[in-house]
Design a protein that fits this description.
- The complex is a heterodimer.
- In chain A, β10 and β11 form a beta hairpin.
- Chain A is built from 12 helices and 11 strands.
- In chain A, α1 packs across α2, α3 crosses α12 and α5 packs across α9.
- Chain A starts with 7 loop residues before the first strand and ends with a strand.
- In chain A, the strands form 2 sheets. A 9-stranded mixed beta sheet of chain A has the order 3-2-4-7-1-8-11-10-9, sandwiched between helices.
- Chain A is of the alpha/beta class.
- Chain A has one domain: Thiolase/Chalcone synthase (Peroxisomal Thiolase, Chain A, domain 1, 3-Layer(aba) Sandwich).
- Chain B has no helices and 10 strands.
- Chain B is globular.
- Classes of the chains: A alpha/beta, B mainly beta.
- At the A-B interface, α4 and β5 of A face β4, β6 and β8 of B.
- Bound molecules: zinc ion.
- The site of zinc ion has 8 residues of chain B, from loops.
């Protein structure tokens, strides 16, 4: 098996301001994100040889992206892979370059959700076959079961568990307050997070991410050509997708306190990137905090914290901007919402800027390797992506 | 259950022949896994044999996990007005399978991990046509 490490570089990226973008169409956001990426890379859109387009709800085919960008008569591939859709677009683009077929490609992800009335993850499965047992449960209640499961397994009472989750929400809102592209840019307090209305016990309002419109884009090229575009390209070290094939929550091998797909996806990416100690070697990470409990379990599944001991790291402020391993430095899904097709690319935008030293007030010290992670679906049948990028070859 | 027409949420979910409802599951004789609702093959990705049989699951299990739906579930569920938070439980049966269902007659402050419960059958919700949608539920022993 080959590795993608150092074969592909990112030479330009763009990201719109996420939010309730009533004054922008999906096409407007695609254009804004892609042209920021073109200008950042210093390329003419005419030089793009192939493109990948990630969206779950925008409709069928690549034409939704090729039409506004006027990418005529080049291959455009529409991809969908749940919450990992944006990362899947990057993966397709990166693999095509690594295969030696194209030199310069584009990946774009976008979603316009607010004017559809969308208010959270839909029940995507009809009442059929094995999904009977899930049809009456809200997605929030599903993740809430991970929280009660984690609390019970590791002996946290309600107040201790709730406080731990609140610290994650407070951290991400602080980071979002430093980011002009975030949907939510206000700080919250621990007390606000703890006392917010309950959505699905034990998860409250600030344990859940919002709903936003957004788009992001990346220009990728052959690693050996990267320096002809810019002096500070970012190199892809690993792109893994991990798909569960079990029976969702009901799998008999699950403890409802972790997500095996994230654990295995992390291992695959670390192997591909040649990483032995993720906690020490990863400088900054953007992970899928659709709910605060998700970020909590991801810290253990990606081996940033030992199993059952993330509490010590959260209390030691390990994952804050000033901490040992800053996580969700841009504000995360908490502050950007989750326009599904855009999310993986939005995360990569932050990692790209961090690795170039251009993250402004959110800049972490001397980053070398950054990681992005998406997690969709339920533990047992989840779709997970893990991407690792670095600012040096080797 | 009142005067409404009762509509089962699906077929072959439970068996009432013993007087009390028991869930119909499929057991893989090769790897030992159980599946609900019943199925025609084994879904364990590590299992190659797929020698399966239908059987009735133990009627009692233990709450392994739970959450409260403080807001109503999405359609096709029709929430009662005013809405009362619903307790969802993941129940582990002696055979090893975990099944999620709604608790009958249980409030948020009563539910606890480790509580013994049994399978029952009841109204999940009443749809817009005034029909009671009937499914498995759990109740305290
Ligand atoms: Zn089997």
């Amino acid at each position: 098996m080959n590795s993608i490490k150092d074969k592909v570089a990112i030479v330009g990226m763009g990201c719109v301001k996420f939010g309730e973008n009533w004054d922008k169409s999906l096409e407007d956001m695609i254009i804004d994100a892609a042209y920021e990426a073109f200008e950042d890379a210093g390329v003419d859109p005419k030089d793009i040889q192939a493109a990948w387009w990630g969206s779950v709800f925008a409709g069928e085919s690549g034409s939704i992206m090729s039409t506004p960008l006027k990418l005529a008569y080049i291959p455009v591939t529409h991809v969908e892979n749940q919450c990992a859709t944006g990362s899947e677009a990057i993966r397709g683009a990166a693999y095509a370059v690594a295969a030696g077929i194209y030199d310069l490609v584009l990946a774009v992800g976008a979603e316009k959700l607010k004017d559809t009335g969308y208010s959270g993850l839909p029940q995507t499965r009809p009442v059929a076959t094995w999904s009977y047992r899930l049809t009456t449960q809200t997605p929030a209640a599903g993740f809430a079961m991970m929280a009660t499961g984690y609390f019970a397994k590791y002996g946290l009472d309600f107040d201790e568990g709730k406080r731990l989750l609140a610290r994650i929400a407070v951290k991400n809102h602080h980071n979002g307050s430093l980011n002009p592209k975030a949907h939510f840019q206000r700080e919250i307090t621990l007390e606000q997070a703890i006392n917010a209305p309950m959505i699905a016990y034990p998860l409250g309002l600030y344990d859940a991410c919002g709903v936003s419109d957004g788009a992001a884009a990346a220009v990728l090229c052959r690693a050996d050509l990267a320096k002809s575009f810019r002096t500070d390209p970012i190199y892809i070290k690993a792109v893994s997708i991990c798909q569960g094939a079990r029976e969702g929550w009901l799998s008999q091998v699950y403890d409802l306190a972790h997500v095996e797909e994230t654990y295995r996806g992390g291992i695959a990416a670390y192997q591909e990137a040649g990483i032995k100690n993720p906690r020490k070697e990863i400088s900054v990470a953007e992970v899928h905090d659709c709910f605060s409990i998700t970020e909590l379990t991801i810290m253990e599944d990606l081996q940033f914290s030992p199993r059952g001991r993330v509490r010590e790291d959260i209390e030691a402020r390990t994952f804050t901007l000033e901490g040992e391993l800053p996580v969700n430095t841009d504000g995360g899904l908490k502050c950007f919402g989750h326009p599904i097709g855009a999310t993986g690319l939005r995360m990569l935008y932050e990692v790209y800027k961090q690795l170039q030293g251009k993250a402004g007030p959110r800049q972490v010290k001397n980053p070398r390797l950054g990681l992005t992670h998406n997690q969709g679906g339920e533990p047992g049948s989840a779709t997970v992506s893990v991407l690792i990028a670095g600012n040096e070859l080797g | 259950m009142g005067e409404n027409k009762q509509v089962l949420i699906g077929e072959n979910l439970f068996d009432m022949s013993g007087g009390e409802p028991a869930l119909i599951v499929t057991h893989c004789k090769s790897c030992g896994d159980y599946f609900f609702p019943k199925t025609f093959t084994c879904h364990n990705p590590e299992c190659k044999e797929k020698d399966v049989e239908d059987t009735l699951l133990s009627r009692r299990g233990v709450i392994e996990n739970y959450s409260i739906m403080n807001y109503p579930p999405p359609p096709p569920f029709v929430a009662k007005d005013p809405y009362e938070p619903i307790v969802c439980a993941a129940v582990k049966f002696p055979e090893g399978i975990v099944i999620i269902g709604m608790m009958e007659n249980m409030t948020a402050d009563q539910v606890k991990i480790g509580m013994e419960v049994e399978v029952t059958v009841g109204t999940l919700y009443t749809n817009k046509n005034g029909e009671d949608i009937i499914a498995w539920k759990f109740k305290a022993v």
